[in-house]
Specification:
heterodimer, A: 112 residues, mainly alpha, Histone, subunit A, 5 helices, B: 478 residues, alpha/beta, Amidase signature (AS) enzymes, 3 domains, eleven-stranded mixed sheet, 11 strands, 38% helix
Amino acid sequence: MKVTDKDVGYVADLANLELSDEERARMVRDLNSILDYVDRLNRADTSSVEAMSQVSEQLSADHHPTDSERFANRTREDVIEGLRKSLPREVALENAPDADDQFFEVPKVIER
Amino acid sequence: MDLNLLTIDAARSAVQNRTTTSMALVESFYARIQKEDAQIGAYLTLSKERALAQADRIDRMAAEGKQLPPLAGVPVGIKDVMCTRGLRTTAGSKILANFVPPYDCTAVARLEASGAVVLGKTNCDEFAMGSSNENSAFHPVHNPRDTSRVPGGSSGGSAAAVAADMAVAALGSDTGGSIRQPASFCGVVGVMPTYGRVSRYGLIAFASSLDHIGPLAKNVKDAATVLHAIAGRDPMDPTSADVPVPDYVAGLERPVRGLKVGVAREYFGEGLDREVKNGVESAIQKLAALGCEIVGVSLPHSEYAIPTYYIVATAEASSNLARFDGVRYGYRAQPARTLSEMYRRTRDQGFGAEVKRRIMLGTYALSAGYYDAYYLKAQKVRTLLTRDFEEAFQKVDVIVTPTSPTAAFKLGEKVDDPLAMYLADIYTVTADLAGIPGMSIPCGETREKLPIGLQILARHFDESTMLRVAYAYEQSPR
């Protein structure tokens, strides 16, 4: 088995998930089953292959010079409220589970 | 005139000519939803106030004799992963059960600017993660063709709403097949455009290098009309492409004679249901009869598509879903003594099983010690899968495949086996990974009267050729 209960605990910590014992047991089973299948990737020879994180990178390969321009990430002018108005504070706070009239509120960050 | 059966053109013309009103259309669709949706479950939220206001606007324009825009009065459903100002947007998740966005998704805004009337938000798998719509935190969707079966996913509500005449068209999103597979299962047309063709501004992100917005509709022309309305560069989405949008509808009638249609043997192997295979092969024969040249092509890395997809997509999802932390919006677990405890409990209680599974898989694949073996490896294989298409498209204009290896399966059939569920996407994930456009159109039925879907894939930004082939097939005699 590739993924142990300890691994699941560690990854859940990284992902900020609190899993019940039952969920942890199921997760060990499911992740192992999926990763066993994923292992077939090792049969593919990628020794001289570049990694692709975006479609844009792939299309910016040499034979597609025009596509690289089409797909290039763009920057905008650094202007306050350049593309649209910022949300008014009260609107930005409207969906918050807990807020006063200025701030999002959360439980204590540091224990004394 | 049965208002619920109108196509986009017919609906718009009827409103323009004042043989009916936009208001009457809206009321007729809400009446149908009222009557049918208890059995189907396609909608999560109805937007009556917004719909009636838009209908009123359209009817005034018609009364004044103004030329109506292309989607005027057309009732549509919007998958509930697209933000709608003032209208609850849940992503099918408990964690956003009460989220009311302060702004509109660009695709929705463009549809409304073209005159469309938003009836409501359609059900989907939680955060668009699933192939059966059974991962909705609210309720499953039943396939209108056989209510014991799934509508497909994740845009199952959008596909079912169109199939059951509860919307003329709908928007869906596609990250690994989530427009095309439900379109196939419900017997409607579903189009995933090229990556970057339609702005994702306001789409709740699942996997940003793979997410697309596109239409579901009853026929190819309607799908082309909706796509034309939403496509094109949007300054609010820096990944949207600055490529001119051709008139998709005007191009439909162009002949297909002489076009080269690729058939890849890798899409007809083990796991493909015999009846689906027969349906797709008959469709290929019909394309040949229409004058297309059928050419064998090879996409040799196809066997790696599912593992590549499920590493790349979950890695990106684990990052995108970090924002759901109970602070700025959404559900918050109570009580919690510390910030960290609040995060963990909120996410444990707010996310469903499949979303947690994918966050865990993605976090694992990105974690120290596993990054190279999984994430980096998958990114490299993604390059190989993309090259397969580049090489094939030097020989052919489109590639046709089955959309899904089977017709719609039973509710509950695959819920306990995530891997079996993932394999439902085996023919669709490749187009998302390569960024090419793909669509599904109905091509016959199984003996049990379940729809079969034909998938058509095309080169980057060549939706026109893809739609043209789909239209020629659709219009040809049975």
